[in-house]
Amino acid sequence: MAAPLDDFYAIIPAGGIGSRLWPLSRADAPKFLHDLTGSGTSLLRQTWDRLAPLSGEGRIMVVTGRAHRAAVESQLPGVPDHNVVLESEPKDSTAAIGLAAAILHKREPDVVIGSFAADHVIGDARGFRRSVAEAVAAARAGYVTTIGITPSEPAIGFGYIHVGDSLGIDSAPQAHTVRSFVEKPDLDTATAYLDDGNYLWNAGMFISRADVLLAEIGRNEPELLAGIEELAAAWDTSSRGAVVDAVWPALKKIAIDYSVAEPAAAAGRLAVVPGDFDWDDVGDFASLAKLQSGGLANHLAVLGDGARILADSSSGIVVSHSQRLISLIGVDDIVVVDTPDALLVTTSANAQRVKGVVDALKISGRDDVL
Fold this sequence. Notes:
34% helix, five-stranded mixed beta barrel, 17 strands, single chain, four-stranded mixed sheet, Spore Coat Polysaccharide Biosynthesis Protein SpsA, Chain A, globular, alpha/beta
């Protein structure tokens, strides 16, 4: 791509604690602030670097929690202060993305916005940019557009997008209608989707004209849109703080999949561009082990500066943030995460259940290790 897209503004929602990666990912050091690929940069910084050629560094907005402002600005020294949107408390993706879209719509009424999670790994940056360029073209035509990932296996940890007919847009030849959004399936259903060939993984990437996205929120969640627009009207004024304190706590928590994507698909207003690039949401330690091993079988991946590991006939992943010596003998697909105040031992097959530990710690009041 020779130059950034003129009317495009990228949004990076940088929230959530990545509870399936506990105790590596914590409330004060969530997943997106970590280097999980061995590249020397965090997932957040990698996301920024992918988007800058599309939008220009001055046209990337980051939505994050107040507690993470210093870390975000340290990792992204190029982000302008007026492009950092701070949440006083998490309110899920509709509020985060909707507020960013509303602020940008006030500043630039014809803007096309694209939302991209801060904690995903994408190997083919050029392929990603080609898909985004087509999605922007479909968005200009009035569609809320998502980028779906071509499945490589019958994964049960992702939602699926049922692809419909071509939209026939010259500048977006790969853009299709979306027949439906499908919740995370069981293995048999996911296998049938893979065999069918007309289903893509939902990667949570949404590209739209800001006014179109806000109209979709208003159709389905009018009270939420009213609060978002009240916040946006005050955002670039001296009354921002008071309005945020009054309005933000009452906003409804709802994911954008439910407030926008599913109803827009049902109404024929949602488009999808297939993304053939490598993509991983690093959703749990099994995914992280696969990422670190490059798909090699019987491999033991090790993360952590100065990790002290002795292994014999063992595979899986070890994350060490302590100086303890960790010995593994004859264990397959093991997951060991050792931090100064918490130790996790499980297997790749049970990696999705780590979130249950976090939920139990919350219930028991053990916030000191969260």
